[in-house]
Every structure is written in C-alpha cells, then in structure tokens.
Amino acid sequence: MEFLLENILNLIGFIIGIIIGAFAYVGYKNTGSPVLFRLTIAFFAIGIGFGIIWGGYMIDDLILQEGKIHRGLQALGLGTQTIGYFFIAFSHTIKSFFPKSRYFRSVGILPLFALSAMNIEHIIRSFSFILLVYGAIETFVSFLEGKQKGALAVGTGLALLAFGEFIAWYSLVFPESILYSISILLKISGLISLFLPISRLPLRKIKFDDLEDEEDEEFGK
Amino acid sequence: MGTYRKQIQIVGDILDAAEELTIDQEGASITKLIQKANISHSRISKILTNLVSQGLLEQVDSKRACKYKISMSGKEFLREFKTFSEFTNNFGLTI
C-alpha cells in the first residue's frame, strides 16, 4: 500500500513539477522576468526530484525487487526537491538564510560526508520543511494583502507539503505506523492544491518571433 | 509604504494604458499615457522609443501631437504579460 502511494505521489509530483516549470519557462522566455526564471528552476527541480524517487521505486519494482528504494537515490531525489523549495523561498527574498560566517561556510558541508544516507535524508527533510513553511507563510501574507484566491490555494499547497514533510520526518520515530502513508496523502493533496490555480491559466504555446532576445535584455532587468 | 514597480511592470502598465486609450485608430497622447501609467515624462520618452523600436507600439502621426497606439504584437505581449503576472501573483510574487 505504502509502495503504491509512494509511486502515485512521485509520479504526480513529477508531472505537476514539470508542467508548472515549463509554464514558468515560457513566461521567462517571453517576459525575461527573473522571478519566472527562479520559479522555472524551482519547479523543474521539484519535478525532477520527484521523478528521481519515482524512478528509484520503478527500478526496485522491475529489477531489484528488494521492496525498498535505494537510500542514496532517495536522498538525491529529496535533495533535488529541496533545491526547488529553496528557489521558491528565495523568490520571497530568503537571502538572509545563507550563513554569513566564513568558518561556517568552510566547514558546514563537512559533517554531511560523515553521516549515513539515512541521516542525510533527515537533514534534507528538515530543510525542505523550513523552506516550505517560509514559502507558505509568505504566500499567505500575500493572500491577506491581495485577497487573490490563487495565492490561497498555492499557500495551502505549500503548507500541506510542509506538513507532509514534517509527518514523514516524524514517522521515522514510529516506523511501520500509518504516519508515513498520511504524509504521502498530505503531499498529494498539497501538489494538487498547488496545481489548481495554475491549471486555470491558459497553457498554450507562445511565440514572439521578433522580440525574444532583445526584449530579455531591455525589459528583463 | 509604497512599492517600486519593476521595468517590466511599467512596460505592462504603458501597454495597458495604450490599449485602453486607443480609440478608432487615433492613438493615445503622451500626456494621457503619463497620467494613466503614472510615470514621469522623462522616463516614458525612453520607454516609448524602445517599445516602438520593438514593434509593441506604433507611432501615429497627428497634426497636433505625436500619438501612440498598441500594435498586434503589443496586444499579444500584454495578454501574455497579464497571464504570467497572474501566475506569479498566485505564488505571492510580482513578475
């Protein structure tokens, strides 16, 4: 059951991530907006992250048949998703999140090499959780200012993803419980909520034969 | 506290104003565009020159003053700008 839910979640995440990423990319090409560029990276990373995990499950299902995903592959997928969440949060000016201390920057990465893949997974999940909560809060604040329904749906989606990430992390304390399945269902709901306002926008191919390059330079600053 | 508009937003506002003010192929005067898009004269002149060279606006010769009307490319750009503006707004961001 958990295996099936994981497959569904990751496939949905992959498809939604790539669709929103492609839409943002078309927007970036046409307007040169750096915000759309960051959203392009964010959603391609999220989509690819889900895709890596889905691929891992498929490889196990079809070839290895061990009944579990390779931990390294899972960490890679989660890490890629975290990059995506970071870019969403970064769009809300998260620059202060970077550690400023030179010492911290130089040694901060070292402990990662001393940790097992399982521990790395915990760290990545906690980062994802923080970034998602930040993104959700900022989006909710924007909703309160502009009263735009789309922002409410996206905020709810990010909040559900954050809650799902938290439950997934917490389920490590209680393995074999229903918590992990709940977290997957929460994440699926979050992804659907994230996609709802985007699905209302016209997803069509846009061409600007004469403008493209010059316009990026002129107006994309 | 007021928020600063990005260049792309100003362009969007000017095109929006030009579209609204273009009646019967007459075009909109600079004064009307300034009022509608809420931008200074010195700044709008450069942007209008750019927009005309990009083919988003067309300059209409008039006896009294120079007027501008939105082109087909301009209308298309404006429509897409609004779509992607709504897209970023959904994330609580501005384009």
Your description of this structure?
The complex is a heterodimer of chains A (221) and B (95). Chain A is an all-alpha fold and 221 residues long. Chain A is 79% helix and 0% strand. The longest helix of chain A is centred in the first third of the chain and has 31 residues, at 34-64. The termini of chain A are far apart. Residues 94-115 and 205-221 of chain A have low confidence and may be disordered. With 95 residues, chain B is mainly alpha-helical. Helix content of chain B is 58%, strand content 11%. Chain B has a 3-stranded antiparallel β-sheet. In chain B, β2 and β3 form a beta hairpin. Chain B is globular and about 45 Å long. Chains A and B meet through α1, α2, α6, α7 and α9 of A and α1 and α4 of B.
Offer a quick outline of the entry.
Chain A is mostly helical.
| Strand residue content of chain B | 5-15%
Averaging pLDDT over every residue of chain A, what do you get?
77
Helix content of chain A: over 70%
Q: What is the number of helical segments of chain A per DSSP (H or I, 4+ residues)?
A: 9
The residue fraction in helices of chain B comes out at: 55-70%
The low-confidence runs of chain B, each spanning 5 or more residues with pLDDT under 50, are: none
Strand order of the largest sheet of chain B: 1-3-2
Secondary-structure element series of chain A: HHHHHHHHH
Question: Would you report the number of β strands of chain A?
Answer: 0
Query: Which pair has the most extensive contact?
Result: A-B, 40 and 25 residues
Q: How large a portion of the residues of chain A is in β-strands, by DSSP E?
A: under 5%
Q: Supply Rg of chain A.
A: 18 Å
The major β-sheet of chain A equals: none
> How would you sum up the global shape of chain B?
globular
CA-CA gap between termini of chain B:
19 Å
- Average pLDDT value of chain B? 83
Q: Class by helix and strand content of chain B?
A: mainly alpha
